[in-house]
Structures are given as structure tokens and as C-alpha cells.
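Sample entry was shown:

___
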Amino acid sequence: MQDSQLVNAFKGLVIDAIHKANSGHPGGPMSSMDLAYLLFTEHLQFDPDDAQWLGRDRFILSAGHMSMLQYAMLHGIGWLSSNDLKQFRQLHSKTPGHPENHVTPGVECTTGPLGQGCAMSLGFATASKHLAAVLDPELFRYRTWVICSDGDLQEGVALGSASLAGHLKLNNLIWIYDKNNVQLSGPTNLAASDHDEATFTGFGWNVITIDGHDHAQIRAAYKKAEASTDKPTIIIAHTIIGKGTVTMENSFKTHGSPLPKDERIHTKRSLGIPEGQEFWLPEGGIAHFQRNFAGLRQRAAAWRGRHKQKLSDSGFKQRWNQHYGEHDVAKLSAVPWKLDQEIATRNAFGDILKQWATELPALFGGSADLEPSNMTGAFAKIVGTFDAAHPQGRNLNFGVREFPMSAMCNGIALHGGLVPFDATFLSFADYSRPALRLGAIQKTRVIHEFSHDSFYLGEDGPTHQPIEQVMSLRAIPDLYLLRPADPLETEALMRKAIALPLPSAIALTRQKVPYLKLPREEVLAKAVKGAYVVHDTAAPDLLLLATGSEVGLALEVAAKLTKFRVRVVSMPCWELFSEQTAAYHEEILPQHLRQRVSIEAGTTFGWERYIGLDGLAIGIDHYGASAPAEVLAEEYGFTAAKICERIQAHFAK
């Protein structure tokens, strides 16, 4: 059987699935089919019998709208059935509109928002480089392959990632750029006139330019990319969108819509697909696609043999389990806080990283050029910096690249074996937000540190003072927003974040905060429930709810409000609190206690969930100003005296 015949048949699968769904993107899969077919049949390393085999090459379809391209390949492997293809874009199918990592075998990460697959690929490549250095180079000698599109490389997240990949010399990373010069609205020259070869050469990549439909050129390019020893590689494959259609080649109309009826019928006929046949493959087609499976199985068996042999060594087994075993956070040592001194929670975070740096070898990450402010410096000194010369290092210098940083950490988490964290200011969470959202969709365990969490940042002014960010992060499903009140809460929530199967964002203060003066074990046990009582009286008639630095302020207020019997609740995580029982909710926030006040140095929007419509929400619903923190606290009413006045006036009505 000729490869061209099978390529055409797989194009037929794409056309039929999109037609049946009456939804999808046929043009891109048809332009990339030669590239994907030769990659999956001749170069990609995987175990046909185990989609999760750890020694596999990783394949990422960054151009997620071209999902039928990947589904066709997975059908060729045998991981998707013909019926799965017929359920394309249907509810609860294995073939959703864009690839989703938790739905389809063989899909490494959820893609669709353009550029993020490119960025996540750095995480996969970095994780395998590091684990090769600290565990075994042979077990982690695999590559990360990406198919990306014109749209991907118009997104800044992809180009920022490419710059970092070149700097890190990730020679195990290969991007295949399907350059068909067409996007949804028309030809790319409406919006771009980039010199891609010059751009990526400048980034420090190997650049290979080919005809993306010439199988000899494709094979040669893949071999050259695999031979790279010092650089990532981009293969710029010039292709024709809708390649194989009878009248619509090079048309942007093939990008995001099913082929018209006549075009579909005549195109399938031209491709050699029998009249009236749908979801058809030629006899012997699957066998030809799988022609190299015996060799793939042999490689997988050899890998498993080496892995078993390595595990017989107790030292290696211990190191392996530190990365791929369960992380028992209870065994992490207590941080020796000096309980008579105030400390910023960002400093507490830094102390925690320093304390656990050697105890948790899987901890891996860094800051977006804010190392001195995010307090990741001590960790960096202990574990060393990850770079081309030192892949055993565990601190990543991301540079001023917040979005690539967080997307890359998603890739590290999806790869497995590491506990990734990243760090920047809370006001810059907006730069990372698309990656935070995609990480939550994928259920990636990433710890995002956001320091300088309120207007108490002070002199840097409104651009750097987060107002709406805490509440906006709470709006992301499956993301835990953690805002600890003191170092002990910070430690408790960090232990929880490491154990969570989902991403978390920990918001930390620049300014020093007092200890809550509660027993250590009580804080560690209760803070992880999301809310707990930190001050109480008999038969309380006023409830103060606070988070972060405002918990200490709430305690000051409670001491001054002699006309009320006050309960103060620290609420470091709404999401964790929502997971508790109804009985616990009633214990902490009894329904009869109707006089309620929330205190948080951010927008008040959303607090009505806990204080009701008659409660008093104390916050800041406008942007900040440039001034010392203590001046702003007075200006915005964040002093005990002014809050007492507001409470007394509100509940005197």
C-alpha cells in the first residue's frame, strides 16, 4: 500500500466526522495530514498497548481546532474506534471539539486556546530533561513533538516560550509548524509579515524549512530534528490548507466549517474513496499504519526491563518514589517560626520553600523575574538553577514571561514526577490567567504564588495594587484561592496545595502580619478546612469574616467593639470551606448569627454569599493610589477605629 493512499483515506475520515457533526475545522487537518501521518507511523515513540507508558514521546497538537487530525491518528493506533470518530463533538464522546487530556487516550494536554500547547510543550521537555539528570538518562530519553499553526505563532505566549526554549537549549523539543498561510478570517498576510526563519534563528533554534507535502523532505527533516544535540528545532512546513479538496485548496473557507455538499462528494471521489462510503479505510490500511508496531513494542519492553532493573537498587527506588510516589505532606518538617515576631506571608512562603527544598526533591519552579520579591531566592540557592549546563537544577528563571511561565508549569504537572510552582505579583495574575484557567480545566497540580496581594503594596500605585484579582481567581472553577493570615496558615495551606489534585493560587502579603497566637496544631488542622474560628465569645451576636492580612485587623476590631459579642473567623479558602459538611458550615457560620461583616482588602463583590444582603462588606471597590501603605490604610478606612465606626453605624440602623 502506498502512503499517499492512506493519507487520502485519513483525510476522508476528517471530512466525514466533521460533516456528521456539522461542526469542525477540515482545512488544517488536510494541510497537516502528511506531517502527522509520517510522524505517527515512523518517528513517534509510544507503546501501542499502553497510552500512558512513561517512556513515550509526547505529542501535543497545539492547533487544537485541528483535533480530527489527532483523532484520525489515534484511530490508526487503535486507541479510538470508528464509532468514536462518528461521535465527534458529541456529548460525552472521546472525540470532543478540541483535544482534552482527561477524555481521550493519547492526548497529553487540553489545547484549543492558541499558543498554549506550544508553551506547555516546554514543561514536558523541561521535566524530562530534569528527570533524566536526577534519575536516569535512558529512561527519560524521549522527545516532545508539537504541531502548531499560524495562529499559534501569532500568540505572544508561543513566542515568549520559544525565546525561553532557545535559551534553555531544549534539544528534546520539536515544533512542526504547519505554515499554510491561512487563518479563520483570511490569508495571514492581512495581519502578519514575519520572517519566521530569522525569528527562530534569533531565538536559538534549529530551523528547517520544507514542503510539508513532500514525504522525502518530511522524513529528512524529522531525522535531522531528532539528531539535534544543542537546540530545539522548528520545522517550518509550507503547506496548502484544504489540501486535496477539488476547488477549495488555499481557501480560508475550509478553516472552520464543514465542506459544502458538492465539494465533499467530489473531494472524496478525488481522494480515491469509494462512492457512498463513510469512515472508510482501505483493506490493509490499519496494518500499514501499524507497520512499525513490533519495533515500538520491543523498545517499550526494553525500557520496562531497564526500569525494573534500576528499581532493584534501593537508592534508585527511593529517588524514584520521591518523584512518582505519594507525597506525604505530614512528613515534611515544621518550619521553625519565631512566634514573637511579625512576618510577611511572602517571607513565610520563602521560608517554607527553603525548609522543604531538600525534603521534597520533586518541588520545581521559580519566579517571573521577581525572585527577590517573591522570596524564591533561598530555594534557588539550595537547589540550583535549571539550565542547559545544569539540568539537575530545580529553580527556573522564567524571565518577564508570566503567561508562558504558568502554561509551562501546566506542562510540567501534566508530564508528572514533579510538583511545579511559579511566582509573580498578584496584580500580574491577569497575565497568567488563561493558563490558570486551562490548568484548572486539565486538573493540573500547580502552585501559583502571587505576592503583594493588596493595596498595602503602597508606593508602586494602582497598576501594581490588586483590587479585583482575588475575587476573580475565586471565579475560576477547580482553582483553589488560598489567602493565609499568618505564617502558620501559610504552612498549612502549602501542605494542602501539595496534596491537592488541582491547581492553587496562594496570595501573600508584602507587609508584615502578626501571628494569630493559636496553637500550631490547631492552625494546621483547621486552616485546611477553609474557615475556622480564631476568636470567640459566649453567645456571639456579631460575626467578622476576614482573610489574609485582614484577619489580624479583624482581631483588633473585635477587641475594640465592646458593645458586641464578637466571633472572628479566618477564611483563607472559600473552595476548601465549600467542601466541608453542612454541620461544619453551621458550626462556623451559624444561621442565627445574622449580623455579619466581611473584611478583605479587595473588591467586596461576592461577599454577599457569606454575609447576606444585610451584611456589611468592608473592602475597596476602586483602584488604589501611590502612597505609603499606612497612609493608604487610613485613606481607605482599613484601621480598627474606622471599621468600628462603620460597623456601629451599619447595625444601628
Notes: The radius of gyration is 28 Å. The longest strand covers residues 173-179. The first helix runs from residue 3 to 21. The domain at 528-650 is CATH 3.40.50.920 (Rossmann fold).
